[in-house]
């Protein structure tokens, strides 16, 4: 997968509708840099998204709630 190093590109409305249609299940889309580009409300709550466009890897390793959930964080890193 090639990920362009350009300014944020808008997400196609069809993808947004698809992710929203997955409710009540969590649905989200990330780009090739692991930035969350689309997430429905359930995914936002389940993944503890504190701000739009959060980087999933950053969130996983630096968010206190994530770190509490993982018992082998150093091994996983």
Task: Give a quick account of the main beta sheet: strands, pairing sense, barrel closure.
Answer: 2 strands, antiparallel
**Hey, roughly how much beta strand do the residues contain?**
5-15%
Structural class: mainly alpha
Uncertain residue ranges: none
Give the C-alpha Rg. 14 Å
Strand order of the largest sheet: 1-2
Distance between the termini: 23 Å
Number of strands: 2
**Taking all residues together, what is the mean pLDDT?**
81
Q: What is the 3D form?
A: globular
Order of helices and strands: HEEHHHH
Binned, the helix content reads 40-55%
What does this structure look like?
The protein is mostly helical. Helix content is 42%, strand content 9%. It contains 5 helices and 2 strands. It has helices spanning 13-21, 41-46, 56-62, 64-69, 73-76; strands at 28-30, 36-39. Strands 1-2 form a two-stranded antiparallel sheet. Strand 1 (28-30) and strand 2 form a beta hairpin. It is globular and about 40 Å long. The relative contact order is 0.13.
